[in-house]
Give the backbone structure.
Amino acid sequence: MKILVADPAPSSLSDLSAVLTAKGHDVRLASRSHQAEQKLSTFHPDVTILNPAVGDMDAKALINRFKEQVPEADIILYVDVRTPWSAVEAVRSTVAAIVKKEFSLHHLGAALADIDNRRKAPTTMNRRDGNQIGRAHV
């Protein structure tokens, strides 16, 4: 999977990059929101692991900007324990998963596996005329 990691902490970027690259993912890193937005336009990730502290705006606005650029990308919100839970709850429905920064690799791996399985599973919807609409595989 192509993964963009956006986090202001250099240690988080290097740790996540090492782990995700070792798992075979194509990883790009950004320490500020403007860097992440530039990479979104050329890299087109399948998943963005986003720490909202990377931006100069609230998490909801940041997620909306990322979704505008790459609507098909899933977002894993990667939050610090000091992040107010009310801010996390406000965006819960717009992200694929929420992972606390003091996480186990199992939690991150499980979130990525869920996203990968969802992307591979064909989904269909019935239109009013009875015909089905399938989701294109990304």
Notes: Helices lie at 10-22, 33-43, 59-69, 85-91, 105-120. The longest helix spans residues 105-120. The radius of gyration is 15 Å.
